[in-house]
Design brief:
With about 425 residues, the protein is of the alpha/beta class. The chain has helices at about 1-15, 25-30, 50-55, 70-90, 100-110, 115-120, 125-130, 135-145, 165-180, 190-200, 205-210, 215-230, 235-255, 260-275, 285-290, 300-315, 315-325, 355-360, 415-420, and strands at about 35, 60-65, 95-100, 150-155, 280-285, 330-340, 345-350, 370, 385, 390, 400-410. Strands 1, 2, 3, 4, 5, 6, 7, 8 and 11 form a nine-stranded mixed β-sheet that branches. Strands 9-10 form a two-stranded antiparallel sheet. A hairpin with a 5-residue loop joins strand 6 and strand 7 (about 345-350). Helix 5 packs across helix 9 and helix 14 packs parallel to helix 17 (about 315-325). The longest helix has 20 residues, at about 235-255. The radius of gyration is 23 Å and the shape is globular.
Length: about 425
């Protein structure tokens, strides 16, 4: 018996050491792309950034994920990458996980003279647009519009995410439909539809559910047919896409259909096909950008039950995009070694244990870097790019690269700007600024 035990221990020593050995970092060292400082030197691109040129050669869509919508250092890293992609690699559209309609409307209003930060605050979801760390990106986009090399901002989310939908959606849609047939907006079905849109944009979920929103999903099909049959101008495609987005937004609420990721992918495909010569950067949650998402296995059984099982049965946006564009799309996740995260009270990140990807990557001399995952052997290393919870599967199964930040900081709410966007809020207090 002891003979077999000794043989077993020898096998574990020889083969099991792969997930624990410090020497595993050596093969990764030459693959790392150092991103330098992501706050102080946000436009200082070191020599290593040129490695991105080869890595992203022939790539048309770069998807920049994030762990949980509560990581400021991730935001700052993405902003630096966006600047490089825009300035050096000719990426010219930035698409947020924010309302398809609202972000398009914001472009129109900015062209008419509306302040860019206000317009983005009313279209891009507040978890980004009202944070202090986001403001430098708005300023950069504004400067790009004056330079002749504009970075266009759009949205791919099928949900309403900003105030612009409340203020303009129904009036814009009715104005468009009046060009087709004025009788369309004089029916009981239209009245019912507008009532539920009002409930939706005012976050009146109980009233919405009681008012049979499933009927509106059928009515939306009728509106789409009316627009398709008329095809009066180039805006018809935009309105069809906006209505499809709304249809599945309502359907997910009333019929529990889980169509959001599919429709977000459809919206991004629509954007790409309408701007075929453009190169696109996507900003959103890593959980939506994953491909092969059915391979995700979370370490914590409760997290697996609540989230991991969802990935097994529900294709994520990234699955559809990767299937459509294959090597033309490059998906990047994020992880961190230490620090805090969260939108309200900062939650402390636990120091990674030996045998995790974060532990392995911490052996680098660099504090912020990108690791391409193709042809990299990290099997057996748990990592936490999803909500800062550990997943057991190889990160390279579901993304093309991962960015490591040694120290994570939570975002800081710009109280005064938030209150400007949401004056009805009773919980956020204004900041007193020193004279």
């Amino acid at each position: 018996m002891m003979k077999y035990i000794n043989i077993g221990l020898l096998l574990i020593t020889c083969f099991g050491i792969k997930a624990q050995g410090g020497n595993d970092f050596k093969p990764l060292k030459d693959k790392i792309i150092n991103l330098g400082k992501v706050i102080e030197d946000n436009e200082q691109f070191g020599e290593e950034y040129k490695n991105l040129d080869l890595l992203l050669k022939d790539v048309d869509i770069v998807m920049l994920g994030e762990q949980s919508h509560g990581e400021a250092t991730t935001y700052q890293t993405k902003i630096k990458l966006i600047k490089y992609l825009h300035q050096k690699l000719d990426f010219d559209i930035l698409v947020f996980e924010s309302g398809f309609y609202e972000c398009h409307k914001a472009l129109d209003l900015i062209a008419q003279g509306k302040d860019r930060r206000d317009a983005m605050g009313e279209s891009v979801t507040f978890v980004w647009s009202t944070m202090k760390e986001f403001k430098p990106l708005v300023e950069y986009i504004e400067s790009s519009s004056n330079s002749g090399n504009q970075l266009k901002v759009l949205g791919f989310d099928n949900q309403f995410t900003g105030k612009l939908s409340k203020e303009y959606f129904i009036s814009d849609l009715s104005q468009y439909l009046n060009k087709i047939d004025v009788s369309i907006v004089q029916t009981k079905e239209w009245q019912h539809f507008t009532e539920n849109c009002s409930h939706l944009t005012n976050y009146e979920t109980k009233q919405l559910k009681r008012n049979h929103p499933e009927l509106d999903t059928i009515y939306i099909n009728h509106l789409i047919n009316e627009i398709n049959n008329a095809s009066i101008d180039p805006l018809s495609g935009f309105w069809v896409q906006s209505l499809k987005s709304l249809k599945y937004f309502l359907s997910d609420i009333s019929l529990k259909t889980d169509k959001r990721d599919q429709q977000m992918a459809d919206n991004l495909i629509w954007i790409k096909e309408n701007f075929p010569e453009s190169k696109i950067i996507c900003w959103g949650a890593t959980s939506h950008f994953l491909y092969n998402s059915m391979e995700v296995r979370m370490r914590n059984p409760i997290v697996q039950l609540l989230g991991g099982s969802y990935y097994k049965k529900q294709p994520m946006m990234g699955n559809y995009i990767k299937t459509k564009y294959d090597s033309k799309v490059f998906t990047i996740g994020f992880t961190a070694y230490k620090g805090k995260y969260g939108l309200t009270r900062g939650k402390k990140l636990r120091r990674p244990r030996k045998g995790t990807l974060e532990w392995l990557l911490s052996k680098s001399e660099h504090n912020n870097f990108l690791l391409p995952l193709k042809n990299i052997n990290i099997k057996g290393y748990k990592s936490r790019p999803l909500g800062n919870f550990y997943m057991k599967n190889d990160a390279g199964q579901v993304m093309d690269a991962i960015i490591f930040n040694r120290t994570m900081k939570p975002p800081k709410l710009d109280h005064n700007f938030f209150l400007k966007m949401h004056p009805e809020n009773k919980y956020v207090k204004p900041e007193v600024t020193e004279q």
